[in-house]
Amino acid sequence: MLTKKVEEFCNRQIEREGNSSNLYLAMASFAEAKGLAGIAAWLYAQAEEERGHMLKFIRWVNERGGNAIIPEFKKPPVKYKGINEIFAEVLKHEQFITASINEVLEVAIAEKDHATVNWIQWFVSEQVEEESSAQQILDKLQLAGPQGVYFLDRDIMNLRGK
Ligand code: FEO
């Protein structure tokens, strides 16, 4: 059984994972409209993963005797300055999500909820990967200069490594 505090933080995370999914969906749509099919495919796949993260939290809350709440999601930005800015934003957003996951973990530790402490380790590892792949793409874009977007669009799906 989740304590009220753990349930509250898990519900906050449901909202944040859902917002992440919509943010990447908006970025994917922007990239697709600009003709960047590879980058769009990467972002669409990322949006699906975030939806999967949201579902994991929803099911965990319900399985542990709580009530998972499906919130209202905020509208993500429609326009982006460019692809470098998109990936800088992805990295910043993932760092925010890492901090947020760590907060859920800290609450679970404080509440002596060992099951949640154990369960959430998957997310702790996942965040290491997500930050690292965003950083990797950003590094490649910066190394390759203005033509980097073309090469990245061609090769980006090979960077998923999944
Ligand atoms: Fe679900 Fe990328 O954090």
| Average pLDDT reading | 95
CATH topology: Ferritin
Our measurement of the CA-to-CA distance between the termini, rounded to an integer number of angstroms, reads: 34 Å
- Please identify which CATH superfamily we are dealing with: Ferritin, core subunit, four-helix bundle
Q: Do you know the CATH architecture?
A: Up-down Bundle
Number of strands: 0
Shape: elongated
Beta-sheet strand percentage?
under 5%
Count of individual helical segments: 6
Q: Could you tell me which ligands this complex binds, including any ions or cofactors?
A: MU-OXO-diiron
Counted up, domains total 1
How would you classify the quaternary structure? single chain
- What is the makeup of the main sheet? none
Radius of gyration computed on alpha carbons: 17 Å
Low-confidence stretches: none
Helix content: over 70%
The helix/strand series, from N terminus to C terminus, equals HHHHHH
What is the CATH class name?
Mainly Alpha
Give the helix/strand class. mainly alpha
What would you say this structure looks like, in words?
With 162 residues, this protein is mostly helical. It has one domain: Up-down Bundle (Ferritin). Helices cover 76% and strands 0% of the residues. The longest helix is centred in the first third of the chain and has 30 residues, at 4-33. The chain is elongated and about 55 Å long. The model has no long low-confidence stretch (mean pLDDT 95). MU-OXO-diiron is lined by residues 17, 20, 50, 53, 94, 97, 130.
